Amino acid sequence: MSVSRNKKISEEIKKIVSHIMMFEIKDPRVSKLASVTHVDVTNDLRFATIYISVFDPNHNMETHIDGLNSAKGFIRKEIGKKLKLHYTPEPIFKQDHSVEHGMHINEILGSLDIKHDEPEVDVDAESSEDTVDEEE
Q1: By CB neighbour count within 10 A (0-12 exposed, 13-18 middle, 19+ buried), where does 79 fall?
Q2: Which SUPFAM superfamilies does the protein's record reference (predicted)?
Q3: Would you tell me which of 27, 85, 110, 112 could form a disulfide with 67, CB atoms 3.0–4.6 Å apart?
Q4: What are the CA-CA distances from residue 105 to residues 56, 93, 108, 111, 113 (Å)?
């Protein structure tokens, strides 16, 4: 199977699951401030690993994943309706740590004391070169 087809299917699953999380799941464990960051589909289209990130600091990620796992059958059925594939991929929900990792890297970079000043120019050195030229 071509990589571009896999990529297109992954993007479509991402759109479908994002829409389902926002508008169709009524479970209070599933936060409206969650998003699908990316989807990895196996080459045989049997499984789709869906990475989720929640932007609500008061929301527990484990309960969000539990809510999505309880709606897994509904989500798979909706994916199957909209994609019309021979096999409907089994969704596997995982927490995406890339946002937290990026924030951690940003904190580390912010804590460094790096000065971005222009290099200092020695004014005395420039004026002595001028006087040497004038003497000749």
Answers
A1: buried
A2: Ribosome-binding factor A, RbfA
A3: 27
A4: 20, 25, 5, 10, 15
Domains contained in the chain, CATH given:
3-111 (3.30.300.20)
Q: Rounded to two decimals, what is the model's pTM?
A: 0.74
Instruction: Give 49's strand partners.
Output: 40, 92
Contact residues for 42 (Cβ-Cβ < 8 A; gap 6+): 48, 89
Residue in the structure block whose two tokens are 């200092």: 120
Q: Which amino acid is at 74?
A: F
